[in-house]
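Notes from hallway chat w/ T.B., transcribed later so I don't forget. T.B. wanted the structure written out for a chain they're using in a teaching module, and asked if we could keep both sequence and structure tokens in one place. Agreed to drop them here.
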Amino acid sequence: MKAAIYYLKRVAAWVWQGCHLLSGPLLALGAPLVAAWLWPTEFGFRSVGFLLQVLGVWIVWVGIRGTRKQFDVPGSWAQTKAWMSSFPRIRGRVILASGSAIVSLSGMSARAHVWSGVPEGATVEQRLEAVEKNVRRVRDDLSAHQKEADDRVRAQDEVMKRERAEREAADKEIHEKIKETETGGLKLNAAGVWWLLSGTVCSTFPEEIAHMLRGA
């Protein structure tokens, strides 16, 4: 049952894709045929031609509107308002700009170092104990510095990986937008060409088409 439903969905998607591909020529040829069957007069063909031309212009407008939305380009009315509001004034406005600077000290740390000294006249055991303490402190300090350096390198690597992923995603999005802009409107443009061509023929030669059909 699930396989049958899945197959029907695939068939429906295939039919829908075919409707998109064939909507231009089907409507361009079907509308005049319907007019010839229902209203075979000069006015009927002229009306059908006018409607097809309007549909063709509308398809062009839909393509322009889709491209404008993809790239966030404002519409004609918004551009007109922006142009009107930018009219030069007699007395220009004085714009005061203020800035602020923020100094951030990041990645810097202060560390206090302790060194064990020995008093004058200390014994050999005391001197050896002080040397051992200092060696341990040097080793601990080196380990702490190494850990901080590793943490900074790891954090920098994560930042670079994240920036690389964001840049790749942005490049892919731009590529998809360009591809959609260049090829996505081809179906609409093809349908518009069919409708404009059929509408122009019906509007230009309505009397001849009507006479030809009457004679037939």
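Follow-up for T.B.: The helical segments are 2-38, 42-70, 76-85, 124-184, 186-204, 206-215. Might be a good example for the class.
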